[in-house]
Design goal:
six-stranded mixed sheet; 6 strands; alpha/beta; about 30% helix; binds inosinic acid
């Protein structure tokens, strides 16, 4: 098994990434970092975290930065998704703020997407960047107990049963999520690098 450091303390993200990379022969070693996520883009923040992880671990390192873009809010909360309700607030506060911000916005104008940037760097100087999106709509109320973050409010586009991301099984989420799509692209590019 090849070792890869994943720069995140979010146990949900670690579980999602490990479920996707372990079948490909990678052992995922999570690393909790204190890096200020002050870049204006998802790629910029992911790269900061990946480089910090490489410097600390010496291992090939992967980091993600992700968030929710809501059309009716001009793309907010975007890179500020984790702190939408303010620093130190939790998922429940973020979701409550989002429901309030979209009060009165009709179904057809509630379009949104999750976006994920992944950056991989290794000690030999490789740098691979991949992005993935998952399209959907923001519901009027939370539904479902799976996933994390905005999942209970996010109605997944194309789901025949009209479920939120939090109503999918972990396996179903890992097939359609922004993180899964970014990772599929990244793995394709790592393969081209010679499977490091
Ligand atoms: P990050 O840890 O800086 O990348 O912040 C990501 C934030 O975006 C999280 O705190 C969530 O609020 C939101 N987010 C990212 N990915 C997901 C997901 O898969 N489901 C729900 N919310 C997500």
């Amino acid at each position: 098994m090849k070792r890869i450091c994943f720069a995140s303390g979010n146990k949900h993200k670690v579980a999602e990434i490990a479920a996707m990379l372990e079948p490909l022969g990678w052992t995922v070693e999570p690393l909790v970092l204190s890096v200020e996520e002050d870049a204006p883009t998802f790629v910029g923040n992911a790269e900061k975290k990946a480089r910090a992880a490489l410097a600390l671990s010496g291992l090939p390192s992967l980091a993600d930065d992700s968030g929710l873009e809501v059309d009716a809010l001009g793309g907010a909360p975007g890179v500020l998704s984790a702190r939408y309700a303010g620093a130190g607030h939790d998922d429940a506060a973020n979701n409550a703020k989002l429901v309030a911000a979209l009060r009165g916005v009709p179904e057809e104008r509630r379009g949104a997407r999750f976006r994920c940037a992944l950056v991989f760097v290794d000690p030999e100087g490789a740098r691979v960047v991949a992005e993935g999106v998952c399209e959907g709509r923001i519901g009027f109320a939370e539904r479902g107990a799976g996933g994390f973050g905005y999942d209970p409010l996010f109605l997944v586009a194309g789901d025949a049963a009209g479920r939120t991301m939090a109503e999918l099984t972990a396996e179903e989420k890992n097939r359609v999520s922004h993180r899964a799509r970014a990772l599929a692209r990244l793995v394709g590019e790592l393969g081209e690098l010679g499977g490091r």
